[in-house]
User: What shape does this take?
Amino acid sequence: MQLTDDERAMLDGRDGPARQKAMELLVRYAEALGADRFVDTRNVAGVPGSTTPFLHDYYKNVGEGYDVIFSRFDLDSDEVVEVPRVSVHACHLQSGVDPENWQILGAKPLAAALSRDSESAAAAREVRILKTCTPYLAGNVPAAGEHCAWMESSAIVYCNSVLGARTNAEGRESTSAAMLTGKIPDWRLHRDECRFGSHHIEVDCDVESLMDWGMLGYFVGEAVQEHIPVLTGRLSRPDLIRHKHFGAAAASSGGVEMYHIVGVTPEAATLAQAFGPSRPVERRVYGPAERRHTYDLLNSRASDPNVDYVMLGCPHAALEQIEEACRLLDGRRISANCNLWIFTSRAVRALADRQGLTKIIRDAGGHLLTDTCSAIGQAVPPGTKVVALDSAKQVHYLPAIMGLQAWFGSTRDCIDAALTGRWRGERP
Amino acid sequence: MSGDLIVLRGRGVVRGCAEGEALVTHEAISGWGGVNPMQGTIIESRHELRGQSFAGKILVFPGAKGSSGWSVAFHTTRLAGVAPLALVFNEMTTKVALGAVVMRVPSVTDLDHDPLEVIATGDWVRVDGDRGLVEVRKAARE
Assistant: This one.
């Protein structure tokens, strides 16, 4: 690997033991990738030093506190080092606990206390505590071309595809190391020649609603796995939340980290620009049959129409999605047999509070929660057997993690289920 | 154990050597949300290995997909004592590279023959991450 003088000095310990350990990890990682150099980044999003009861117990014999978890787990170091302030713009993504409503989520006091402690330790090191999977809705919006080091598959695909900024799918350890060094391997999506499309998806049915975009994303992820799809055809121009649900779904059923929509996304003004010098290795059509199949696939995990839990906000809800849920609730109360939890970021929740939306949801018998979601927090209302979701991503994960049945449909279908306790969604 | 030794040549990703029984899947593996990191099992709803354990096995798979929590999930398998012994895979991604590094298990990719074609579950496999070699001894079939 070629290291600059600055990188070599960090590796030799000039900037202290934590930055030395961070560089050691980044070099191991870059060599594993086969990267030959680093790129500078000043925008890093991860989960630095995030502590769970498992990690707390595991390292108990070594010691307690932020430095122990950060050194041993984040930096994969065999010795504990003192963790300094971060060197670049760094933010904390979602975590496992809502700090104000952890009891509603059924979290243990220990988990809430550990989360609070690691949060204040991270804040003291100048990590911005956004606590969301949608940093781009909470003030971190990278500029086109900016080199980033982000975790969170739905945020990564948004960063590359919609904003035209550049990040690979980084992990906890690589982002924590990047926060201390401002370095990340110069590999794949940081490089011009790796951002072209490889698979052509021709859309031959109308894709308009949020649900349509989620289904299309789920299909595309399965079709291209970790490659870069280029979409053309009968697509309405997607807004932010459609991009959010499309990308999140494609990153769950496959490993899509970037997509192009011709005439829409910033690096795909034309089909030729989207593919660059490469030729499509595969062409797939998404028509009515594929749409039916995707809907059925997303609903293959449910048979019981009695819904006891409705979860919205995957990825974290935008303000307009919370408004829509409130509109659909229309002053009614949800069924006594059902719970409604809507997840968002602290930033959006603050707006929802002021806008009177949080109260509308509470008055209907639901909760607007922050920082986490049912999959990340592994938290559903007690006794939940059947959940209704408007997110293809959440359908992909939640039933597997929590052993539930899951229905997939529109936000309207889900609010209807919350109000009636019955699933009445139909294949569009 | 019987049969000839088959040698595949590729690139070492993480150094070290390990040998054991192969667990082979033709489907990419999701880390966070796709495995139970405390038990070392695959939990993804429609995965062909759903319910099976990779603990102490040589995991042979196409590559990583899904959540960027891949490395955290597999890092945790190491702490919980249920990590695979070694990794053999085809598609390099940031997820699998970082996961292999923090799991600290010998890992090899870019092989001259498709390991998913050559290796079957139950075969005896030796992974040499220093030299980028994978040695396979086919299990005796009934």
